[in-house]
Every structure is written in C-alpha cells, then in structure tokens.
C-alpha cells in the first residue's frame, strides 16, 4: 500500500521539553518523530545525559553521547538558565505558545526553581503538561534520589531477576526511564484525544515507580490470589506458580545461548517428542507442571543433549519450523544489529552527526502503512537558541 | 498536594476498541484505554472461561465489556464484521496464521470500515524470516538483546523473569494507536500497525546499539556494577532474602555514606575519587555489606535518603503491595471480585483524567455483556440472541 503523502499527525503541535536524561526526552523523541515541533530547553551545561557514556566516535564530549543522541532525535535545542528569574520568565513565554509541556521537575527541583505544581496549566487551560519523575509529586519517596537500580528495586522489578538466593540483578541501561517515557507518550496521546474534542488540556503525572508497578505480568496476583512471594529463579520461571510449565529455559549452543519459551501443554508434548522422550507423556512424574519443574535440571540436560553441537540458528530453525516451539537466540548487541528479522523490518537506521559521525539507532518497534516517522539527528547544544528566543 | 486520581467520564470517552488480545501485552494496552473511559469490547472464545482462581485474567481486563463470540463460525464472524463497522480500533495478538485462517485480515476489515485502525502484535512481526515462528515473552526479549546484557558474568545470560517484550509492546501500542487515530481524524484514512514484541525492548537499548555501531562499544557483563557509579548494587539486609539497592553517584554522597558507616577503611581520602573506589570495589562492597547486614531495609533506606543518598528497598510482590509510598499516593485499586472478594490490583500509572476508581468495574466473565452489545449496539432482538445462544455462536452470562 502506498505511503501517505499527508503530513505527520502531530504536525503543527508545539512542544516544550524541560526534561533531561532519558524518561522525558524519550517521550519527546516520539512526539518529534510524528511531526511535533519539540523545543528542548537545556541548562547552560547541557542535558546531563550529554555527559554520560557510552559515547559515539572517538571523543567523549557533549556532542557525542549515545544516550543523548538517541533520545533527542529531531528536536531543537535552546539554552536557558532556569536558576535565574529571566530564565523562568522566558520559559513562561515559550510555554504560553505551546500545546504540550514535558517536564521532569520533582519536588526538590520545583522548590529550588519556585515552580508550583499547576503554575502553567492555570495560565492556560488548554495546555497539556506531562510531569515525568521517579516517584511522583507526593508521598514519602517524593524527595528521594535515585538511579535506575533504585527505581527497579522500589518498583518490584529487581527482586525478580537473577539466581535464587543471589544478588537480584538489574535490567540493562535506563529501563525505568524508557518505560516512563513510553507511558508519558501514552499520556500525551490520551490527553490530545480529549483536547481535540473538548479543547481542554490536563496535568498528567507519570512516576517511574508506578509505571513499573503496572508492568508486572502477574507478579502481584501470585500474592493476592495464591499467597506466595514470587522469587527470582534464574532462567527457569516462577517455581511456585501453578501455571509455570517446564520449557522456559536457556540452553548453551556452540555459539552462545538459546532461549526456549515452552508454555502450553501442546508445546510440552511436542518438546517431549522432539527430544525423543515420548514415554514422558504417559509417565505420572510428568503429568503435572510441578512434577516437570521439580526435575528441571534433568530436563535441561536432555534438552542440552538434543541441542548437541549445533548453532543457535540451527536450533531455532528446527525447534520453530519442525516442532512449533518458541525459541530465540540470546543475542549480543552487535548481533541484534545484524539479525535478519530486524534487518527485514528495517528496525535500525543510520544517522549522520556533524561531530560524532555515523551511528545506527533503533527507529520504532511498530510499522504502519500510513505514517513514516521522521527520525533525524539530535541537536547540538544550544543549536537553536537564537532562532527560538532571539539571543 | 495529593496526586490526581481521576475524573468521572475519562479522556477517551467516545472511542470504541475491539479487543481480541489475550494474556499480557495486548490486554495491558486496552486496560489503559478502559481506565480512561474508552468503550473496550473484549471478544472471548465462549469455550474458555476468563476468570480463574489464580487471577490471571482479572488483573488486565477491568473496565471492559465482554462478548463471548465464536469467530470461527460464519454467523459469529458476521457479528464481528458488524462490530468492526461501528468501531475505531481493532487490536489482536494471535500468531499471524490465526487471523488469516479466520479471514479477519486488515484487507477484509478495511472494506467494511475504511476508517478502522487495526493493530497486530505478533512475536517477531508479520513479515520477515521469523514471522511464522511462535514466540513467548522470554524469547522475544532474548532476540532484542536484553538477557545478553544481564548476568553475574558473561558465562550465563539471565532472562528478566517478567517477559519484558510484553509490557514494552503494550505501552508502545497505547501511544501509536492514538497517534494513528489522530492521523485518521485529520486525513480520514485508517491504517494497519504491526508491533513486533521482539523489537520493543530493543528500542529501550538505543544507546547500546548506537555506540556499538559507531565504535564497537561492548558493555562488560558484571552483575549490577556500573561504568559510572560506585558503589553500585544490591546488598543483603536483615531478614530472609531482604536487600537494599545502593547507588553512589558522586563524591558528596560517597563522603556522606562513609561518614554514616564510620569505618576507617571507607573513610580514606583515596576513595573520594571514583576511579579508586571502582578499583577497590570488591573490598568496599564487603565493608558495606557488613554494615547493611544487621539493618532493616526500609529503615536504612529512609536514613540514607534523608541524607541525599540514592538507596531503595528491593521490594518483593508482597512488599510492593504494602509499600508506604504507593499506599499514601492511593495508587492501588481494591476491587470487590464476585467470586473471590476484595482483591488489590495495581492502579493507573498515567495520572490524568481516567475514570474515578469508584466507578471501575471488575473483569467480566466471558459473555458478560453479550446481550447488551448485540441488542443496544447492533439492534438484535431477544429472539435473535436466543437463536445465536442455542447455536453456540454467542455465550451469554
């Protein structure tokens, strides 16, 4: 089907982003890609993510941060010092002409800059303001300091990953920020739906901790319905849960690891036949899921034998095509970039940057037949200060 | 000031969503729509009950209407097409062949309703070499590179334990469908959206891919250790499997921590410098672990946070449900389930104009709204309903 020649659906919307790091900026990145004019306000030293690794190219400087460039694609950068009254006054002018304000002022920074909660939405009832902070603007943690591992800990994610009894492990990079950024984009789109119909804006709070707490699979129901603390269990899932089957496991191949996601009864039956153990289907030991899980290490060894001296790709092909079992290779970063499925989808795009050079960035996990998101380079520090505020 | 806790009507009033999704990723997306007042019609197979003693489907299907409908029967499919004609969005997360076999593809549906937005959420996407392969949350995240970055060392990658592709895809769906609706409202054109569960987590690792493609950057797999901060990790505290996470991000907070712990080794001026702490990380961790071992996690968290140090209890499901912060913010929803009594669920993390919690409805059993949907929305008579019920096309509760 032909791609639309129509402008992108957020074209004409003005967004002011006063947010640093990953969460707020990731939200702004999505809005920019779908046509909004996103003006990013940076302090004179730049968004702090400009100063953290990993860096692109050969130099570590404010124009080479991978995290900054990924999350600020397609925006305009304006330097503004909000610690002085003139800064706040210029910001107020900018916001008065905007449709959407994305900000990450937590309670301490609001107090520091003298920005009360509804300052901007009171001035303009059609403004959509999205507040993205680690813990929200009320409650006993609202003054807390945090980094991703702290957010993962309090959001209940950290406890669930790792080997039983050993240190719980964090998800890589800035996952709570990314999730809150995605939630923030959802908030913008929901608020736009209402505003497009009624003209009314709204103030929407998104907290990372609460975002994580709503993204918990069925972790909390294990306590509220079945009464157990869900433990981390390495690559074997949920040892206490009645519905956890054997076959969610990770096995070593000659070129790395492969992940199996056998979850249904018919998949379990095909797994038995695949590894040449048809007799398990009549054996009472394997009649129940808990019976299977209780001998998981033995079953792992049988699966490992079946895998034998093969590559991840060979194993995935046979398990998927012949046996209909969910499998996938555990890929390293460099391998994800070259995975044939992702290449086919065009998941990554190369962007050239005047200082750090070319690099491949993910586009979006969705493909649509009408909208082509505009993914372009991130701005240099203060690149658009003069065109936006005239100095 | 307390956080906002909803409105009466909800921002998405007037939006109608046909929800064919199951399990996690899809229902998570449509739950957000339901909380915000969209008319979400969940279509379930009459032969498979939704409500179960493990609460699996009760969490994500609140604030939705349910119709029990056999899509594989021709009169059932007809009813689905009639619903398509009066809906804005259709969302499904079957394997690709299921929808093809039912002949419910975008090409068919767009003839019934050219304005329809349809979203499929397959494991690997609808096209490409893996498109027909089955997928599961753990396998999707593996392809995206997530477990490849988790481990105590590089010898054994570890899965997240939460099927990470699902929640990330669900959140992506929430945003992009509404963006597509805005596109429709401007242009009058519907569209098809394909979200790959395996692609979503990769888009939360953008900096890793960019750096690797630029200069070969490859992160070291080393537990919770950080390239920027030290000490950094989780430390056992008093009690069984109780932990606290700690993240020292600068010289100031390190000095404060050393002062609180008051241990001569940690108080060394050498350790004011990050590189020196990083070099002696194992030794420093041992001393910090000793100090934490006798402390109660929540108490020590508040003690450190009061002094500006990033620390947090490593909460289990049980601890999360009684977390003081979430409770004070009235985050949870305690809902009275007809079969199980009051159960506590996670609330709405997007705190805008969602429907007041007092107006939230528990998950309907399959067919809970079949009659209302057929009669009020589609103009069927009572007799029609009886016939469809007898034929097994529709289930009525």
Any overview of this molecule?
- The complex is a heterodimer of chains A (391) and B (397).
- In chain A, the strands form 3 sheets. A 6-stranded parallel beta sheet of chain A has the order 3-2-1-4-5-6.
- Chain A has helices spanning 23-33, 66-71, 85-96, 107-113, 119-123, 148-154, 175-198, 208-213, 219-224, 265-274, 289-294, 296-307, 312-322, 333-336, 340-345, 385-389; strands spanning 14-18, 37-42, 76-79, 100-103, 128-133, 202-207, 248-253, 256-261, 327-329, 348-353, 357-362, 366-368.
- Chain A is α/β, with parallel strands linked by helices and 391 residues long.
- In chain A, 35% of the residues lie in helices and 16% in strands.
- Chain A folds into 2 domains: 14-213 and 345-389, 3-Layer(aba) Sandwich (Rossmann fold); 234-332, formyl-coa transferase, domain 3, CATH 3.30.1540.10.
- Chain B is an alpha/beta fold and 397 residues long.
- Chain B has 2 domains: 16-204 and 356-395, Rossmann fold (3-Layer(aba) Sandwich); 232-321, 2-Layer Sandwich (formyl-coa transferase, domain 3), CATH 3.30.1540.10.
- Chain B is built from 16 helices and 13 strands.
- Chain B has helices at 25-35, 74-85, 96-101, 106-112, 137-144, 165-187, 199-202, 206-215, 251-261, 274-279, 281-293, 297-306, 317-321, 324-328, 370-377, 382-390, and strands at residues 16-19, 39-44, 65-69, 89-92, 117-120, 191-195, 232-236, 243-247, 310-313, 333-337, 341-345, 350-351, 394-395.
- In chain B, helix 1 crosses helix 6 (165-187).
- The two termini of chain B are 43 Å apart.
- The mean pLDDT of chain B is 95.
- Chains A and B meet through helix 2, helix 6, helix 7, strand 6 and helix 8 of A and helix 5, helix 6, strand 6, helix 7 and helix 8 of B.
- Strand 12 of chain A pairs antiparallel with strand 6 of chain B, so a sheet runs across the interface.
């Amino acid at each position: 089907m032909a791609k639309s020649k129509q402008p992108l659906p957020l074209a004409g919307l003005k967004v002011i982003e006063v947010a640093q790091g990953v969460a707020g900026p990731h939200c702004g990145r999505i809005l920019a890609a779908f046509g909004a004019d996103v003006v990013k306000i940076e302090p004179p030293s730049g968004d702090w993510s400009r100063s953290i690794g990993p860096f692109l190219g050969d130099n570590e400087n404010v124009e080479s941060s991978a995290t900054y460039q990924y999350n600020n694609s397609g925006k305009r950068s304006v330097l503004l010092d909000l610690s002085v009254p003139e800064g706040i006054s210029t910001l107020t002018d900018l916001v008065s002409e905007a449709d959407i304000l994305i900000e990450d002022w937590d309670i301490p920074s609001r107090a520091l800059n003298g920005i009360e909660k509804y300052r901007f939405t009171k001035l303009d009832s059609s403004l959509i303001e999205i507040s993205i902070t680690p813990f929200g603007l009320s409650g006993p943690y609202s003054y807390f300091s945090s980094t991703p591992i702290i957010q993962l800990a309090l959001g209940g994610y950290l406890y669930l990953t790792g080997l039983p009894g050993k240190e719980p492990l964090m998800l890589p990079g800035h996952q709570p920020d990314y999730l809150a950024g995605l939630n923030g984009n959802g908030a913008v789109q929901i608020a736009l739906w209402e505003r497009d119909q009624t003209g009314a804006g709204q103030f929407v709070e998104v907290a990372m901790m609460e975002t994580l707490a709503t993204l918990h699979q069925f972790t909390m129901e294990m306590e509220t319905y079945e009464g157990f603390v869900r433990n981390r269990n390495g690559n074997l899932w949920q040892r206490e849960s009645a519905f956890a089957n054997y076959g969610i496991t990770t096995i070593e191949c000659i070129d790395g690891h492969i992940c199996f996601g056998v979850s249904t009864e018919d998949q379990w039956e095909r797994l038995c036949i695949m590894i040449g153990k048809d007799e398990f289907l009549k054996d009472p030991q394997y009649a129940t899921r808990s019976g299977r899980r209780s001998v998981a290490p033995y079953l792992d060894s049988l699966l490992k034998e079946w895998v034998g001296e093969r590559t991840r790709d060979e194993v995935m092909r046979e398990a998927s095509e012949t046996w209909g079992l969910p499998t996938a290779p555990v890929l390293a970063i460099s391998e994800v970039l070259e995975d044939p499925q992702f290449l086919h989808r065009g998941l990554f795009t190369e962007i050239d940057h005047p200082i750090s050079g070319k690099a491949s960035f993910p586009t979006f996990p969705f493909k649509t037949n009408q909208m082509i998101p505009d993914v372009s380079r991130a701005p240099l520090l203060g690149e658009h200060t003069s065109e936006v505020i005239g100095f | 000031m307390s956080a906002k806790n909803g409105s009466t009507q909800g921002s998405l009033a007037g939006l109608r969503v046909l929800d064919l999704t199951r399990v996690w990723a899809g229902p998570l997306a449509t739950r957000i729509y339901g909380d915000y007042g969209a008319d979400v019609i969940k279509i379930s197979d009459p032969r498979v009950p939704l409500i179960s003693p493990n609460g699996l489907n009760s969490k994500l299907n609140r604030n939705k209407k349910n119709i029990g409908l056999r899509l594989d029967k021709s009169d059932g499919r007809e009813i689905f097409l009639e619903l398509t004609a009066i809906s804005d969005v259709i969302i499904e997360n079957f394997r690709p062949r299921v929808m093809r076999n039912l002949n419910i593809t975008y090409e068919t549906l767009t003839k019934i309703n050219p304005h329809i937005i349809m979203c499929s959420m397959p494991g690997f996407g609808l096209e490409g070499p893996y498109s027909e392969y089955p997928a599961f949350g753990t396998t999707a995240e593996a392809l995206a590179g997530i477990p490849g970055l988790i481990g105590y060392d590089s010898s054994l990658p570890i899965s997240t334990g939460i099927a990470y592709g699902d929640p990330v895809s669900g959140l992506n769906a929430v945003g992009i469908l509404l963006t597509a609706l805005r596109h429709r409202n401007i242009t009058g054109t519907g569209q098809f959206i394909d979200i790959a569960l395996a692609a979503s987590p990769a888009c939360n690792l953008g900096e890793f891919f960019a750096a690797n493609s630029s200069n070969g950057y490859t992160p070291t797999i080393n537990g919770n250790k950080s390239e920027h901060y030290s000490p950094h990790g989780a430390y056992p505290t008093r009690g069984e499997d109780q932990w606290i996470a700690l993240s020292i991000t600068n010289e100031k907070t390190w000095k404060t921590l050393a002062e609180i712990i008051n241990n001569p080794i940690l108080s060394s001026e050498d350790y004011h410098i990050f590189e020196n702490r990083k070099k002696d990380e194992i030794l420093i961790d041992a001393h910090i672990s000793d100090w934490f071992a006798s402390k109660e996690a929540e108490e020590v968290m508040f003690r450190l946070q009061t002094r500006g140090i990033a620390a947090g209890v490593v909460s289990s499901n049980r601890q999360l449900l009684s977390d003081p912060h979430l409770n004070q913010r009235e985050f949870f929803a305690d809902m009275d389930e007809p079969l199980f009594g009051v159960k506590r669920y996670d609330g709405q993390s997007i705190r805008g104009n969602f429907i007041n919690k007092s107006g939230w409805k528990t998950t309907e059993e399959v067919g809970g709204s079949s009659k209302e949907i057929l009669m009020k929305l589609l103009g069927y008579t009572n007799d029609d309903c009886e016939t469809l019920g007898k034929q097994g096309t529709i289930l009525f509760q």
